[in-house]
Amino acid sequence: MKIGRNDLCWCNSGKKYKKCHLRKESKNIYKTFEMEGALKKIQKDNKLCACPSTYKKDCRGSIINAHTVSKKYLKNISQNQHIYTGCIKSILAYEKNNGEVKALKVGINKASTFTGFCEYHDKVLFSCFENCDFNKSDKQIFLVGYRSFCWEYYAKTIQMYSIKLIDQLKMQSGASYLNQPEINTLHKAMQIINKHKDEFEKILLNKQYREVQYYIIECKGVIPIQCSTSIYPEIDFLGNKIQSMIRDPQLDLLSFNAFSEHGKSYLIFSWLSSSNRTCKKLVNSLKNLSDEQKLFVITQFIFSIENIYFKIDWWDNLHESTKKLLEKRMNTPYSEEPYSLKTVNLYKDYIQYPLQDYSKIS
């Protein structure tokens, strides 16, 4: 409930809100550069190797900036070793764009990285596709999805620390404790994500790669977009509800990766057997669409993913109406139906088809 100016203050001081914490809360709590520095310290202090605990004894070297999208794949869409991204890690960049995600140029050495593995495990765990061609084996597909999951696990951990930091700063300034609902939601998310972490690690340790389920769309040509993510999908590609972050005690996890190699592009939906119920519904809703509809809704889906990278001249040459729609997707949560066919149909008469000149489903 919102506190009125003349109501008693929430802090039980006996004073009216307008003469107590209203003035404190209206002040600038912290300067942006101070917050930026504090968050960088959180990231520095929480470097970790995400390998299973059984493997920890083998950790060697420092914690590195591990790529979620392989650097060799990013090179295929880079220009002068640079690409655009919608993954904004800087508070200063958000403030510059008035709190909105905009296309940002980044070098491929930094693109898609997170401090999630030691040098040894980043090299050993993912060598089957980093050092080899992609052959669609169960092992490769599992490990591509596993690395996406590790990025999500790391991101949620940092998010938890960040929200707590913001609340500490607010309390120090006399502001009310505003982020408890967000912390409670993150606690639930961490409980669910830890369950999936255990499942991934069990498969990895026992090499039970057939536990991974997947649906792959192959495209002829190099699409100008690449991404890597793990999400809890709430709607399918027809706009139907398939699970609820609020209602369901356990959630099914989907990993999605898009990359190109040797003149072909791969759009990979993968999940563990335990997440069959929701993920099969999502994939089945996609299978029934035409090839053009598939690529159209997947483009909208990809642009609602945080960890996304795209070719500079492709983006620069898009029609402004297309850019605006895709930027809207980058700023729209999954739960607000950013990628269903129903939503796409609203725009199909006047929006440029983003991938029509680059790919054809094989």
Give a brief outline of the structure:
The chain has 362 residues and is of the alpha+beta class. 41% of the residues lie in helices and 16% in strands.
Structural commentary:
The protein is an alpha+beta fold and 362 residues long. 41% of the residues lie in helices and 16% in strands. The protein has 13 helices and 10 strands. The chain has helices spanning 21-26, 32-45, 71-74, 91-96, 119-125, 127-130, 138-173, 180-206, 276-287, 291-302, 312-316, 320-330, 341-345; strands at residues 63-67, 82-85, 104-107, 113-118, 212-220, 225-231, 254-261, 264-272, 308-310, 360-361. Strands 3-2-9-6-7-8-5-10 form an 8-stranded antiparallel beta sheet, sandwiched between helices. It has a two-stranded antiparallel ribbon with strand order 1-4. It starts with 20 loop residues before the first helix and ends with a strand.
Please give the structural blueprint.
Layout: H1 21-26, H2 32-45, E1 63-67, H3 71-74, E2 82-85, H4 91-96, E3 104-107, E4 113-118, H5 119-125, H6 127-130, H7 138-173, H8 180-206, E5 212-220, E6 225-231, E7 254-261, E8 264-272, H9 276-287, H10 291-302, E9 308-310, H11 312-316, H12 320-330, H13 341-345, E10 360-361
Helix pairs in contact: 2-7, 7-8
